[in-house]
# Entry
Amino acid sequence: MPRITRTWAPLAAVLLAASTLTACSPTYNWRDVRLEPTNLKAMLPCKPDKASREVTMVERKVALEVLGCEAGGATFALLHADIVDPARAGDAIRQWRIATLANLRGTSARDTPFVIAGGASLAQSAQVVATGQRADGSKVQSHAAYFAQGSQVFQAVIYADELRMDMTDPFFSNLKFQ
# Structure
């Protein structure tokens, strides 16, 4: 498990650091996006940037693709990887959740089941609301959803000083597979 945490640490640090930046406008400009090459559609409140890096998931090197942006003092991100073996999706989600909370130095976390139409029915699919610390030690809140479709595993996440419903509701309620 520590290997996963170290592998994802640079990406998590970038996302956490980015959440400390203030957006150009405090308002949200929600737009439909598709997380290529998957068929996941979502709404982001700003024009997203793309990034990719190689990570290890369930003992396999995979490309972790990120689509994210900053708005209203929060970082919004959609991440996915193809782990090749759909039978390992639950393990990948469980390990991803553990690694994210470790990188966040989470002091508290609350899990609830998460179901997305067209997604795999996995016990590990969940929404996780957590409080932790940024790299500079300041407090950060996160709200993440972990889910899968076939061999594709996903994380949709928001990092902010304070999570608000005007951030979380449009972001998570508009996740869908087409």
